[in-house]
Amino acid sequence: MRPADFLIEHADLIVTCAGSAPRCGDAQREISALEQAVVAAHQGRIVYVGSARALRDHVEVARGATRIDARGCTVLPGFVDPHTHVVFAGDRRPELRRRLAGATYGEIAAAGGGILTTVAATRAASEDDLVASARVRLDEMLACGTTTCEAKSGYGLTTESELRQLRAINRLGAEHPVDVVPTFLGAHDVPEEYQSRPDDYVALVIHEMIPQVADEALAEWCDVFCERSAFTPQESVAILTAASAAGLKPRIHTDELSASGGVDVAVKVGARSADHLVFVDEQGADALAAANVCAVLLPAAAFYLKLGRFAPARLLIDRGVPVALGSDVNPGGGLSPSMPFAMTLACFAMQMTLEEALVAATLNAAWSLDRADTVGSLEAGKLMDAVVITGDLAELIRVGSTQVRMVIKSGKAVFWAQ
Ligand code: NIG
Ligand code: FE
């Protein structure tokens, strides 16, 4: 008999996403849903998921336990958002207006806007300012059902300001209900002062930034923006190889704005994920599948950047690549904090099924962050992280409705609809 101090009962359906991670191919549709079931937890961890009738054979529910009545609702694992740039300063709304008037992301960046605008503002911000502004964004993400997210540096681009951004990210992870997984992205762009000597900037990332980030244990992952306008495949390999040697696990932005060669980099350095992949082709999909690299797709970025196309999710799934979804919250094209919105675009712009999108937003996203042992599904032993939505699964893709009734993190209700 296991004790329990927390219970979700009477739900119409409990979607557990239980089972092995990552889910590839046909298995990406398996959401393992249970009717007439309950979830029980003790001290923030799930102890039982299964038939309501058999609960008493397995679990002793403490007197005074918290009981969530989920009548008329569907219960899902808390969403895991595996790609965000949630910590930054400044405002790029003028740039947004230029995009609406027809300028492309690349044109704006080439004219000195884009990432470098945010870099100037972030360099000028204190750690407290960064924490305060990101806290509001994490609150929004939580209200949409996100209980774990990744967060990248990459708007400092000096050793001191990259470390400051990472300290802010780590503080948010400790303070905020959303668990935050830190990623070092010093290779997000070449800063203005290094434009004429990009090799020196790559050397700074490798020889100064990575050792300090690793020494202070400020990040778990290292990412690189592999793109014509940012870092070449060769530079990306050098940076991610140095990061791995220092104990930072590799992931990569690739094929967002053009076919950038980053898939080969991901395979070569053993990256856990390759993100964006708007321009990936069949050969790339096969290479990712063979190396078991997770495709983290960010359809909200493609949508808000008006790229006119989306990542070929069907191709990736059909070739056996595990697919995850993220929000890509960022000051440029990352305007939505919502994983349900990313799932909606996955369904309507990338031909994924709702079940595939749900696995992509939970278990596969958790695996892409090396967290599938603790989050991403409702299973005994994992954290009691859940989203309770009114009605059935299809409510998730009604953009703008208030379908999220309650969000639970480590066995505590941390958001509920008024
Ligand atoms: O994932 N592509 C690089 N990084 C972000 C955009 C960052 C920005 O525009 O500030 C992305 O889309
Ligand atoms: Fe990104």
Describe the structure.
There is one protein chain. This protein is of the alpha/beta class and 418 residues long. It has 2 domains: 2-77 and 377-416, Urease, subunit C, domain 1; 79-368, Metal-dependent hydrolases (TIM Barrel), CATH 3.20.20.140. The chain is built from 15 helices and 18 strands. It has helices at 55-58, 93-100, 105-110, 115-123, 127-143, 159-175, 198-215, 233-245, 262-269, 282-291, 299-304, 313-318, 339-349, 354-361, 363-368, and strands at 2-9, 13-15, 33-34, 37-42, 45-51, 59-69, 73-77, 79-81, 146-152, 179-187, 221-226, 249-254, 273-276, 294-297, 323-325, 386-390, 404-409, 412-416. An 8-stranded parallel β-sheet has the order 8-9-10-11-12-13-14-15. Strands 3-2-7-16-17-18 form a 6-stranded mixed β-sheet, with no helix packed on it. A 4-stranded mixed β-sheet has the order 5-4-1-6. The mean pLDDT is 97. Bound molecules: N-(iminomethyl)-L-glutamic acid and fe (iii) ion. N-(iminomethyl)-L-glutamic acid (NIG) binds at residues 85, 114-115, 118, 225, 253, 256, 301, 328, 330-333. Fe (iii) ion (FE) binds next to loops.
